[in-house]
Amino acid sequence: MSWINDPWPWYVAGPLIALTMFLLLLVGKQFGMSSPLRTTCSALGAGKAADFFRFDWKAERWNLMVVLGAIIGGFIASNFMSDNTVEINPEVAQQLSQDYGIESAQEAYLPTEIFGLENFMEPTNLAILLIGGILVGFGARYAGGCTSGHAISGLSNLQLPSLIAVIGFFIGGLIMINFIYPLIF
Amino acid sequence: MRYITYLVIGVFFGIVMFKSEAASWFRIYEMFQFGSFHMYGIIGSALVIGVIGVQVIKRKRVGTLDGSEMSLKPKDKGVARYLIGGTIFGLGWALSGACPGPMYVLLGAGFPSILVVIFGALLGTFLYGLLKSKLPH
């Protein structure tokens, strides 16, 4: 059946993400994928350095189980349900190739020029991945949530703070793509 | 048993993230270039169903499976932390092409390079914890 291997269209994926949120609500939890980062810091002993990590992380172990599940889900989907290529807008693919030398659009799931085993250890790529990660971790905690916590959970509950956060996500993303990318690639 | 439930929900979420390509750097780049409706459709359709569902839950007072109240706590009020924190998050999201959920999914999908992003995200979370009292909220 082709729906197993073909990418799922947005109108299938979106409702299934909403379903994930409802399933978590039904078992008494909240959908948010950046809280596990805080739980992990706490479990690793960050409570010694900052009050922010001094809480009963064992009570939050459930979100580490969701993370473990997401890892397994990624394994299953990439190995048994996908040809691991992503077809984006051809104009965007061409622009990536022309402006930034990223040729792997339409052929890979992630740009091999950055994420490929032979490439990610290059200093520029390491910096992109590390700084990107730091900004995501710092920003998510500062804003009190990430895409799942604010853009899905918070907005579904009509929370104004989540709308402000999501506007922030786009301000940051547009600044990065339009002003900072031309400087680094 | 409860932990198996959380694990299964995680597996489901992981498959959805990967299959919808929301975990792909290319899709995130394309979204910020307004190159396709795909990501907007995913978030938009999740939201339409999410808003309707949460309204139904509130009006019908639907509880959790064990009968307690659902975790629909209102967010703390404020502007600065959401706008500044959100913008910082957006910079990182567009740079690494990964938000927290997809990071884990990509690790399972066999991209060891994503460990650098996950390490960075843990470091960023730790830095926030250290600096929290000095930041405007």
TrEMBL record, chain A:
It holds the Pfam family Sulf_transp. Signal peptide: none annotated. The lineage of its organism: Bacteria, Pseudomonadati, Bacteroidota, Flavobacteriia, Flavobacteriales. Belongs to the TsuA/YedE (TC 9.B.102) family. It is a multi-pass membrane protein. The keyword Cell membrane applies. The chain crosses the membrane at residues 12-28, 62-81, 126-143, 163-184. Keywords: Cell inner membrane, Cell membrane, Membrane, Transmembrane, Transmembrane helix, Transport. It is found in: Cell inner membrane. InterPro entries: Sulf_transp_TsuA/YedE (IPR007272). It comes from Nonlabens agnitus. This is YeeE/YedE family protein. GO terms for cellular component: plasma membrane.
UniProtKB/TrEMBL annotation, chain B:
The chain crosses the membrane at residues 38-57, 78-98, 104-131. The keyword Transmembrane applies. Keywords: Membrane, Transmembrane, Transmembrane helix. It comes from the Bacteria. It holds the Pfam family Sulf_transp. This is Transporter.
